[in-house]
Amino acid sequence: MATQWAVKGDYMEACSCDFLCPCIPKNMSNPATHEFCKVALTFEISAGHYGGVALDGVRFAMFAQSQAMMGAGGWIGGLVIDSRASDAQAEAIGAIASAAGNGPLAQFAPLISDFRGVLRAPIEFVRNGAEYQVRIEGMLEQSVSGVGSMSAPGECVAIDNTAHPVNKRLNLATALRNIISAFGIDWRDTAGRTNGHFAPFDWQGQAA
C-alpha cells in the first residue's frame, strides 16, 4: 500500500564551487569551479509526517560528490540522519530522501552511482535571520551568510525558477566556513569564498 507523506521546513547547503556556483544558473550543464563538486545539504523539518509517523523536528543531511559536470552523473552519495530521531523516523527519512519516496529528492537518485550508506549522528542546525550554521561532529561544519538585497531591504538576493529539487527559488549566500569529511568526501574552506544557498521547503509525495 502506498504511503502518503508531507514535510516542510528549512534547508541550507554549501559546496566547493566559488561564489556564484555555475551549476544552478545553467541547470547543471556548466562545469563546476573545480574538477568536482563536493556538497552537503542539511534539512530541518518543522512539521511533517510519513504515513502515521510524525517527523516534526527531524534533521538530516545529504552529502554528494560529482564530476565537474554534475548532470553527467557518477556521483558519490551518503545520508546522515539525526541520532535523536526514532528508528521509524529514520526509516521514513531514508524513503523521502531516495527514489522510494517519489518526491523532489528522487531526482538525485539516477545521478548517484556510489551510495555509501546511512549514518546516525547528532545534527546541530541553527538559523539566525539570513545566517545558517550546521554541525555534525567530525563530518560537517558549515556556516553561510545570505547576500543582502539593496532593492528589497531585509531580504536576500535570490535566484528564481531553478531546477533545484528543494525549491525553485534559492537565496544566495557565501559560505564563511565549509568543512566536509564524510563518506570519503573531503573539502575544507575557511576563506569565505565558496557558494551557499538556503530556502524553505514544502514537499508532498507518495511512497510505493
Write up this protein.
The protein starts with a strand and ends with a strand. It has one domain: Beta Barrel (Acetoacetate decarboxylase-like), CATH 2.40.400. Strands 1, 2, 3, 4, 5, 6, 7, 8, 9, 10, 11, 12 and 13 form a 13-stranded mixed beta sheet that branches. It contains 1 helix and 13 strands. With 208 residues, the chain is mainly beta.
Summarize the structure.
This protein has 208 residues and is mostly beta strands.
**Amino- and carboxy-terminal Cα gap:** 7 Å
Quaternary structure: single chain
The proportion of residues forming helix, as a percent range, comes to under 10%
> What count of domains describes the coordinates?
1
User: DSSP strand (E) fraction?
Assistant: over 45%
Q: Could you tell me the number of beta strands?
A: 13
Secondary-structure element sequence?
EEEEEHEEEEEEEE
Highlighted features:
single chain, 208 residues, mainly beta, Acetoacetate decarboxylase-like, 13-stranded mixed sheet, 13 strands, globular
Secondary-structure blueprint:
Layout: E1 3-18, E2 36-50, E3 53-54, E4 59-67, E5 75-82, H1 87-96, E6 112-121, E7 124-128, E8 131-136, E9 140-146, E10 158-159, E11 170-182, E12 185-189, E13 194-207
Parallel strand pairs: 5-6
Antiparallel strand pairs: 1-2, 1-13, 2-3, 2-4, 4-5, 7-8, 8-9, 9-11, 10-11, 11-12, 11-13
